[in-house]
Amino acid sequence: MENMTPPPPFSDERPLVLLAQPxxxxxxxxxxxxxxxxLAADADADAAxxxxxxxxxxxxxxxxxxxxxxFPALELVAGISVGVDHVDLAACRRRGLSVTNxxxxxxxxxxxxxxxxxxxxxxxxxxxxxxVRGRLPxxxxx
Length: 142
Known about the structure:
By secondary structure, the protein is an alpha/beta fold. Helices cover 39% and strands 13% of the residues. The protein has seven helices and five strands. It has helices at residues 25-31, 40-45, 47-52, 65-69, 89-95, 107-122, 125-132; strands spanning 16-19, 36-39, 55-58, 76-79, 98-100. The protein has a five-stranded parallel β-sheet with strand order 2-1-3-4-5.
């Protein structure tokens, strides 16, 4: 008879990314083939995720030394904002962690949005839309 060794247990080779907050569903779906995701708050309770997570994706919530201590395998803190004022850079430096952020990735989009809001205010688009739909009180009509 041949040597019958059982196959190794299923292991997911995709890197685990720890999230400070949930991703937009569309964004998570687009990246699901390349990465696995776990909420950092849930990973605190799951020793396997805590030990395996090498990337922490953060928004604007503070990232402190105490927070980083819970993730021994961490190599990168990636912020989705422009700045890193909310990240304890000294703690990251002590732990040998790389820190990055979105930089100016959203600058053009933010500028477009700001111009749109200015036009909306100056042209009173919201008030006009409410008037057209008949939702403004009569004192605004006429």
